[in-house]
Amino acid sequence: MQILLGSLLNGLIYGMLLFMLASGLTLIFSMMGVLNFAHASIYMLGAYFAYDVSRYISFWAGLIIAPLACGLIGAAIEVWGLRRCHRSGHAAELLFTFGLVFIIQRLVMMVWGTLPVPYQVPGSLNFTLFALYGQNFPAYRGFMLLVSAGMLLTTWLVLKKTRIGLIIQAALTHPNMVAALGHDVPLVFTIVFAGGCALAGLAGVIGGNYFTTDSGMADALGPIVFVVVVFGGLGSLVGCFIASITMGLVQTFAVTANGSISSLFAPLGFDLGGDTLLGEILTLPIARIGPLLPYILMILILFFRPRGLMGTRDA
Fold first, then answer.
1. Domains (ranges, CATH) in the chain?
2. Per-residue pLDDT reduced to its tens digit, 161-187
3. In whole angstroms, what is the distance from residue 312 CA to residue 110 CA?
4. pLDDT of residue 175
């Protein structure tokens, strides 16, 4: 029971962090049709900005300044980069954001170096929130859950209950009509892209000291974020949330699993082992193939449902 509850809590925390990062990418794609390869790099910048601000001011100042800085960078990327690439089609946009990945990574190495920086949990949150079956639950993890849930609620309210949210959604499907009503559609797209980058920066602020802040952190989380977006469905915020929690729980529980896939079917009388390559794979401990499970799930969802769980666009 201790391992079960511990894995459940850790899976929820990791899943909500994935959602914070993937939600910005989902919003950008659903509103603009741009699959931003540099999204995880903005997440990395958010962590480094928060580290510098926390050194000179405080963590709480970094919680505000770093996402705003990432949002401004995102606005600059959209205005001076993506807006011009858009004239040449989606291929140019993909190549542009793919090139940004390497540029941002090299800039981070030049400014902060290649070694991890000591971005620590703030002292005001560095205590045990509660103990569960003898296992301490840090207050900072509870803070991560609170921020993630607040971001989810705020994003939903902005998109569904405010005037700007209605304009954003209308600009996606009827841009000419929105422009005829006097709204600046390019400005709307800039706000969407900046908002998505700000969410990535916020994920970097609270995730940078939970994991490790170094020049490779974007490479570590970038692939799994795209898995989440594709699995949940391109353009679906609800699907992104379901996929994030699913991937977080799958990866967390896989680490603690001792058996193999073949052992799960053994009580039913199925012997999936054997001397074949497939048989050897099925007898491997789940903990060893845990990192591959999200990608296996993505392949399966693309095979049976190409649009993902709740997608509005083809993957």
1. 2-304 (1.10.3470)
2. 888 878 877 776 677 888 887 888 888
3. 40
4. 75
